[in-house]
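Cross-posted from the bioinformatics board.
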Amino acid sequence: NAGVTQTPKFRVLKTGQSMTLLCAQDMNHEYMYWYRQDPGMGLRLIHYSVGEGTTAKGEVPDGYNVSRLKKQNFLLGLESAAPSQTSVYFCASRPGQGFTEAFFGQGTRLTVV
Amino acid sequence: GEDVEQSLFLSVREGDSSVINCTYTDSSSTYLYWYKQEPGAGLQLLTYIFSNMDMKQDQRLTVLLNKKDKHLSLRIADTQTGDSAIYFCAEGQGYNQGGKLIFGQGTELSVKP
């Protein structure tokens, strides 16, 4: 049972480069989320999706774009990476009804130099 | 907007009780959560409490909720070195608000032998 899988696990980018982080879940969850984790700031929500084909902005969306073309995948894109985007990125998913926990991936550690 | 606050560090001796505190602002939260993050790993749900409950006990864990003061606490009895981790408090928004989890900064628990 894979759960939530993030690809890649580590990446170093140069300022101005672009990249896409992939989140895949095999639990048929409706809701998916991208967070970033920075020391002393906890997890902050970047973007989220409440179903296939939908996306919405979270607390810190600037500099990021997302897409949810398939229900199981949620992509996070950085068009022009900046050092301020150095962080650990977490994807999470949860079903769309009833009490549910959010299941997290193992994280992607991104360094922008 | 919504805000969740936690102290950043807590140090205890093995065998003692640990109490991690959290305050939140969104009185409409249905569930409040405690997540645990071990070094280099993602977040795992530790326990949760429904907003109409005052207390929940689960083996060594006791969650207390003071809804009037918007204060949540997690008590770990007989703390072990394996409990050393970062503990996140989170409030859960309703699915009509995207089912988002709003996290605190995380409390780093250090257990000394």
